[in-house]
Amino acid sequence: MTAKSEHPNVGRLAGRVAVVTGASRGIGLAIAQRFIDEGARVVITGRKPAPLAEAVTALGGPAVAHGVPGAADDPEHQARTIAEATGTFGRLDILVNNAGTNPVYGPLTGLDPGAARKIMEVNTLGALGWVQRACAAGFGEHGGAVVNISSVSALRPAAGIAFYGVSKAALNQLTAALAVELAPRIRVNAVAPAVVKTRFAAALYTGREAEVAAGYPLGRLGEPADVAAAVAFLASPDAAWITGQTLIVDGGLTITDRAVG
Fold it and tell me: The whole model's pTM is what?
């Protein structure tokens, strides 16, 4: 769990309500904590009720956080979460599509089609579904911001997780298309991290962290808080004239010739 902290932007998101998917741990939880630190209230989702409840407690309890368990690509779960966000906190201003999956590792020539479909359903179609259901519930009445969590694997081939990168490349294009369609009331942007130290990405660095980090100009792997800071910026009024962009948060990896992962 993350610990509460102070930021110079305390109050920047005062009065805002955000939905953050896949936020019982890792990057999603860090985003939710950063939003709360900046004055927002959050509704978080996750597949398992117990870890989700623990995350709500860690974030400060029901005054600032509410959890809705379910699968990110389930339309009924999406609709229920949006309804609970507006019912619990009275409005919805920010949507962060953080939930993602990558159930396979290996070359594309051996990729199971069922696994490929699941990756696209969660990482790309799931994100679209969340936006559709939020808009159907009046999202954007006060102005809104969507931030999609992409990956640098969308920008260059990544051995072993190539189809994950394909799904995130599609997410980047979806981000740009939605930005055009939903302007001017709703801004839509994405953040593309490199390897961040989470359980989700552990296979990419466990047992060789120093070796992997050596390929990054800034000399370290990412932390969930690094991504959370970028997401908070894009969700805030400070990014009021930014839409349709994918912000790379990678410690400089993509300006080198090193491979992702």
Answer: 0.94
